[in-house]
Amino acid sequence: MAFDSARFDLQPYAGFDMARYVRRTYCSWEDAGWQSLLVQRFEHVPVAEDMPLPGTADLHLMLPVSGRAVMETRNGGRSDRRTWEPGRLDLRVPDQPVQCSYPGLRSARTHASARR
Question: What is the pTM of this model?
Fold first, then answer.
């Protein structure tokens, strides 16, 4: 699961089966001793259907560093499809839960950062 700290909004992730979708390989709070910015790196499973990402109080920036996939996100009645590829920055705004799906992700890793 994401780093456990009172400064990071983890409550919405209670019960989220992270291992089903990603494996965290880096955490700046643990690995670099940073306190004001959280940077995490994840390796994603090749295929995900209806991965529920809860709305949190924190802003999330996602930057793929390898791999490529068509990412579909759904928020309420809105759906968005975009190519997820290295160097393309994506943003999740606070308090907006989404459902994500991606078929055929090819060896993707992302850096995700959140700041309070």
Answer: 0.71
